[in-house]
Design brief:
CATH class of the largest domain: Alpha Beta
Number of domains: 2
CATH topology of the largest domain: Endonuclease I-creI
Helix content: 55-70%
Strand order of the largest sheet: 1-4-2-3
Number of strands: 4
Shape: elongated
Structural class: alpha+beta
Number of helices: 9
Distance between the termini: 79 Å
Radius of gyration: 32 Å
CATH architecture of the largest domain: Roll
Largest sheet: 4 strands, mixed
CATH superfamily of the largest domain: Homing endonucleases
Length: 221
């Protein structure tokens, strides 16, 4: 037996894997497979630990790489968008209204549980629709296990609207409502509505203008 094969055999009998022996002695795994095809093998403690924790380490590395990729491409995406212009905000808010706004009555309302969506909606109503705090109200829809005071405090921070703008909170007491959905909405859903205070251009007229914006935006190219 040549010295290299002897060293490989010694390591193999001590319970080392083909990969470890290959890294140490530079012998191909195919060669060792031929040498040791009929030789009993029992992995040692070190090899057993590698077998046990290898997938965990590999999973951690994949997770770390995923987080790096997410950060990289989010940064790239932000750079591609750049600073939002007034028209960008106009179209962004219009897109939100198409998805989350009321369209069945001539009343303006945007509802969502996402604080980012609600914050953008309030900004859009103020900066694009020329409304003020006096034209905006908030109604919260929560579950029985939500804390109403905490929910109001939370949405006051998001909307930057005073407490007097908050209407009576609606509590969803339906017994067949999925309890998992409740836990996903710790602050409930915010419904932002517009009141015209006697100024039609901030009420039904504005609603019809928004409808025209939607019509134009959704026209075939």
């Amino acid at each position: 037996m040549n010295s290299l094969r002897h060293e490989a055999t010694t390591l193999r009998d001590k319970g080392y894997s083909y990969n470890m022996i290959s890294d140490t002695l530079g012998i191909s795994k195919s060669t060792m497979s031929y040498w040791f095809k009929d030789r009993p093998f029992s992995p040692n403690t070190e090899m057993l630990k590698r077998i046990q924790y290898g997938p965990i380490k590999s999973g951690a590395l994949r997770h770390e790489q995923r987080l790096k990729d997410i950060a990289k491409y989010r940064k790239l995406g932000k750079a591609e968008i750049g600073k939002l212009s007034r028209r960008d905000l106009w179209m962004l808010g219009l897109g939100l209204y198409i998805g989350e706004g009321s369209k069945t009555t001539e009343g303006i309302r945007i509802s969502n549980s996402d604080p980012v969506v609600i914050a953008i909606a309030v900004r859009w109503l103020k900066e694009i629709c020329d409304l003020t705090n006096d034209n905006l109200t908030v109604r919260l829809h929560i579950y029985p296990d939500n804390n109403e005071l905490e929910a109001k405090k939370y949405w006051r921070t998001i909307t930057e609207l005073p407490i007097k703008n908050f209407r009576k909170t609606m509590v969803d007491k339906r017994i067949n409502k999925n309890r998992n959905n409740r836990s996903k909405l710790p602050h409930g859903t915010a419904h932002i509505s517009v009141v015209c205070n006697g100024e039609s251009e901030k009420g039904v007229t504005l609603y019809r203008r928004i409808s025209g914006w939607i019509d134009r935006a959704l026209e075939p190219v």
